Amino acid sequence: MMEKRVLVTGASGLVGRTLIPALVARGHSVHALSRSETRHGQPGVTFFVWDVDTGHIDPRCLDGVGAIVHLAGENIAARPWSDRRKRALVESRTKSIALLYEVLEKRNHGVQTVVSASASGYYEPNVDAWMSEDRPPADNFLGQTGYAWERAVAQGQRLGVRTVSMRSGVVLANEGGLYPKFAGMVKRGLGSAPGSGDQWLPWIHVDDAVAGYLFALEHHGVSGVYNMAAPGQVPFRQFLQAIAHHYGKPLWLPNIPRVLLKAMLGQLSELLVDGTRMSVEKLRNAGFRFKYPEIGGAVAALASQEASRRA
Predict the structure, then answer these.
(1) Chain-centre distance for alpha carbon 47
(2) What are the respective helix, strand and coil percentages of the chain, to the nearest 5?
(3) In the chain, where does DSSP find H-type helix?
(4) Would you tell me how many other CB atoms lie within 10 Å of the CB of residue 287?
(5) For the segment 106-130, what is each residue's pLDDT rounded down to a tens digit?
């Protein structure tokens, strides 16, 4: 495979930290955008500084770049959703890609592809039907955020760029996100499902998420929107049961009532008690193969990876 230089936004995030070494291993060189000072010590990776709020970006980040992977966005689960926080969450996703397109418009460039993150929150929650990519966005904050995000990415088509938005499920990884929090509770014998526990969890192992972005990046017949979650999506209760089974722990505590979560977290509780299940037939029909299609295998792999890291 010929070497291609790839620009990655959101390089320090959960997926970005795993994606960058995978890109380098596949013969790509990487330019990474960061809000902090340039970092060193990663062969094949050059960091550049940007500030989306002020519109500052080092234009050299696009020198020689043939593709962009857009993962930038404020952590949607980090803080309660005040009106100000909601605005920051949307703009961190939409203004960031618009800033890159603004730079591209002003120069001759070789960017052919933009692959962006999106999220399962795009869909109406708590519906038993499998959500396919042609479904409309939910009329709530998460749905409209996903809609605005994908529209902003698609603007790259005006520049002759192939654009892909990957509507990702909840990424399971040891390094952050939902999995270590709930796995830690289960291992201490304190596992408890939020809400009814029957809400669907559209999960994906981090290795499959990274493979999904690489697949979209390297297969030029892929364009538009694709759901990206494991085929074996499960209710939240079954997710906890898989962890408990692997570690030989009981699940004896009652569920955490929805009203209590709402009181503690406000609208943020929607991330735990609302769920959906996404059809991934479009991605599979394009030729993508999942390494971890079922939750039991994903939990076993995460446990093995954690044990290897600690050894």
Answers:
(1) 21
(2) 40, 20, 40
(3) 16-25, 83-105, 141-154, 178-187, 206-218, 236-247, 258-265, 270-273, 281-285, 295-310
(4) 10
(5) 988 999 999 999 999 999 999 889 9
